[in-house]
Amino acid sequence: MTGPAEVRCMLMRGGTSKGAYFLAEDLPADPAARDELLLRVMGSPDERQIDGLGGAHPLTSKVAVVSPSADPDADVDYLFLQVVVDRPEVSDRQNCGNILAGIGPFAVERGLVPAGEKETSVRIRMVNSGDRATATFPTPDGRVDYAGDAEISGVPGTAAPVVIEFPPGEGKLLPTGKVRDVIDGVPVTCVDNGMPTVLIEATSLGVTGYEAPKDLEEDLALADRLRAIRLEAGRLMGLGDVSDTTVPKLTLLARPRDGGAVTTRTFIPVRCHTSIGVLGAAGVAAGLRIEGGVGADLAELDGGGDRVRVEHPTGFMDIESSLIKGSDGLPVARRTAVVRTARKIFDGTVFPRSAETAPIPPHPHGGQR
């Protein structure tokens, strides 16, 4: 396959991730051709991604594809693509709440949504799942302002706040229909509050949950247990065979150490996240409020408010989360919101490496679903 020799691109930090943002019209319409091009743009497969934009880690090998939405309840469509670092694979089987933080500003920068005089709200349809979000951010004098005093863990300095509100999803918060399941002898709670997530008490796997991510990644016995749990959880959650996908995420829970509600260690799916994804944290926050769920006994929640502070290896993330009881008696999400930040790093043209020197990827999961 061959693609364009150069592509308009904006590199942005969204939350604690970094990715390449594109208008859909600037990429090939055919999913296979698009993904082959993105592998060359990002520099995969190569564990250093030395010949592309990727940063040699799943958190910095991400792509957003944005277009005007035909949905009357959305302004733009956002397709998230995870470009695997060391294999010629591109996956569209998950959302990314961190990259989501940059979608509203990008839409204004590209003229898809007009800017307000003080702030702008952009209604976003997440193509991967069909879920929606509304991002609100400052646009003084009709221009996106990235400077501000909002601080998030895992990002140095401060930036303008991007408030992201998630309406209640149409899917089940408990996709297995149970508050708890037992997989490979381990109690788990499977939740989906925008991201399929499996909650596991760390001590049930013989670890504390306070280990450094690198130490957990190097625990081969733990990796084998997690893989077995993830495969079975994927089946129970209706995701089918997840052996070649990045969902569901697995989050180990432990009692909080720094004033939060709970301590987390999240796997994506093999690498241990140095922080936690927005939608993964939304799943944790909701899961902690489920009576009888894994983690409910560990959590230290403020009984009077919706805010849940989720601790992670490099700090914390605050999630506004509340639940109500559904018609079937099971809990459903009522409100989920988070404050993130984003920043434009560069806007210009990226030159993909030559197609003649790049491997052609298998394409089992490409395309918009």
From TrEMBL:
Keywords: Isomerase. Signal peptide: none annotated. Its EC number is 5.3.2.8. Gene3D superfamilies: Diaminopimelate Epimerase, Chain A, domain 1. The keyword Ligase does not apply. Pfam families: PrpF. GO terms for molecular function: isomerase activity. PANTHER family: ACONITATE ISOMERASE-RELATED, ISOMERASE YBHH-RELATED. This is 4-oxalomesaconate tautomerase.
